[in-house]
Amino acid sequence: MTRKAQGVIRNATVLDPVNGVNRIADLLFDNGRIVELDPSEAIVATHEVDATGLLVVPGIIDIHVHASPWLGGRHAHKMLATAGVTTALEMAGPIDGMIDIAANYGAGLNMACINYVRPEHTVDSTDPDASELSDLLNASLDSGAIGLKLLGGHYPLTPDATAATIRVAAEVGAYVAFHAGTLESGSHIEGMIEACDLAAGNPLHLPHINSYTRGAKRDAMEEGELALSTLLEHPNIWSESYLSPINAASAKCSNGAPGSLTTKVCLERGGYTPDEAGLEKAISDGWALLNVESDARVELAVGPDAVRAWRDAGTNLGVSFAVNPSEPRLRLATARNVDRGFVVDALATDGGGIPRNVIIDMGLSLVRLDAISIEDFVVKSSVTPARILGLTSKGHLGPGADADITIIDVERQRPVASFVGGEPVLCNGRVVGTGTRLITTPQGRKAAVAHGIAGPIVELGTMLPDRKIEAT
Ligand SMILES: [Zn+2]
């Protein structure tokens, strides 16, 4: 008998830590779901892949990306797909703009979004009260977001309003993430410790731990150790770090100086004056890496051509600096607690439209160094991110799981192909996916359908799960 199916991946090294699988097998999927390994019937499938010599893992999930008109832009989906990502959390919004990009520039990915709490944009002031925050959360959920993002380090609120946001989200079981920093503390290790206090035991996603350990207050390695011990004291907090050496800031200048404080600090660090002339020289010399849009992606650019592009854009472009010191970055990505779990839960990128989508490339460098195992790599880039998002049918390849699959050339540390819901997204390194599957709560379903991007439903109260309950 011959069975017809959506897809089969043959001769793959299938690695599925949740189900204890690590062997060469054929992987069968149909109707968007995994069916089984090594089917006994002969298969004729719409999508047949010979994955001899390649690694097949549950789709890579990046829980920190930017793909909105405010940050990341229209190339983000394609850049994520190129990097082998199948599911991502857009970490800022605004939700309406994020949805526009998802509907018009999608690459076949599952995407969720949290909507920013931004003074004069989504809230009136830097000190919104609980009822204003509750209204914003409700409107955000209606629009398709799964929760809220506190922009802290960039656009800080008062400590009270920050704590209230986290509490309001916890009350309804919505997602909430907080780039550390309030009106009383900055985006550094002290701000991170304040953030853990302000969570007051409520569930919280604390993003990019590595960016609080750049040596702003103490020695960078000391800050790294302090960050780790702080996380161990707060089991309610889920965290990620990224492996790229570069940060992201704005190159926009007015009145002869960059508007972004981060940009100024980075210029001084490179020995440049913290003004427009200093930034121009830094771009020309190669210290400031301009984020320039080409036809299909955002690329880092330096030198005279980059200076011209920056001038043509009226200085309104993104810019990156290699300011993430390597030692705490590597320590945070690999540190374990006594139970051998990872202290920083996930590998993410803060990428998307910012060109640093390096989960596979740099994550597999850690494997090559024997700093983590290949199973660990899958745990940090798919298994745990799926749990954090409350997506029980992702992060593994057992029968009935979503057919979200990433196929990797481990030798070259590059993705070769990927599937989302059994449909091809990446094929021989080329993006072939279109559209978006918006991950939303039941409350956001209507908005997703209205924009033609309906995707997986995640229930309130299942995201950022309680570790104590999970452990029993
Ligand atoms: Zn970010």
Characteristic key phrases:
single chain; 472 residues; alpha/beta; Urease, subunit C, domain 1; TIM Barrel; 3 domains; eight-stranded parallel sheet; 14 helices; globular; binds zinc ion; plasmid; Metal-dep_hydrolase_composite; hydrolase; Dihydroorotase; EC 3.5.2.3
Number of domains: 3
Tell me the β content: 25-35%
CATH superfamily of the largest domain: Metal-dependent hydrolases
The distinct bound ligands, ions and cofactors come out as: zinc ion
Query: How many β-strands, per DSSP?
Result: 26
Q: Would you identify the CATH architecture of the largest domain?
A: Alpha-Beta Barrel
**In angstroms, what separates the terminal alpha carbons?**
44 Å
Radius of gyration: 22 Å
GO molecular function, one term: dihydroorotase activity
Protein name: Dihydroorotase
Cofactor: Zn(2+)
Domain Amidohydrolase-related: 55-431
